[in-house]
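Study this fold:
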Amino acid sequence: AALPAVVGVRTTVPKERRSAQTLGTEREGHGVLIDDGGLVLTIGYLVMEADTVTVTDIDGIDRPAEIVGYDYESGFGLVRTARPIRMKPLPFGDSDALDLRSEAWVAGLGGEKAALKVKVAGRREFAGYWEYLLDNAIFTVPAYPLWGGSALIGLDGSLLGIGSLLVQEALGPGAPAFPGNMYVPINRLKPIFSELLAFE
């Protein structure tokens, strides 16, 4: 029941923008519908400096969207479609309840065929070279190949995180190399959510 809330996100970025050098001028990933008015939560690097945003729902319908907000510290991005998406939005869960070896689902656009059951391989600090810091990032295994903006969904159908990276050491420093993904916990969004919406 949660999977129809996962959407596709495509953006184009002018080639003169700074992020075009590293992230490209055409970006594609996923997002999650989080309200009845077309508000979609995604990972910020998909929408950073974009001049066009297109959201695709599970029925394959494209809708133009506008950037609502982007938080550099957490990496979250918000966009809103010009027309509402007639799907049930995902409620926020409690990402702090995800412990080591907890089970969850990760999903991209496409319903069941784009979903994968995962386990939590770690909860630890993540620091990116681009001045990006999370104090309690979620690391999952096995690796999900289409991670950017994908949804981390609890067994109760709530949204627990948004996909950010493919990592080679999901099990942590000192452990054998094992590919997995890093998810930004949804609890990181809650304190800044109203602030991001204020720019709309």
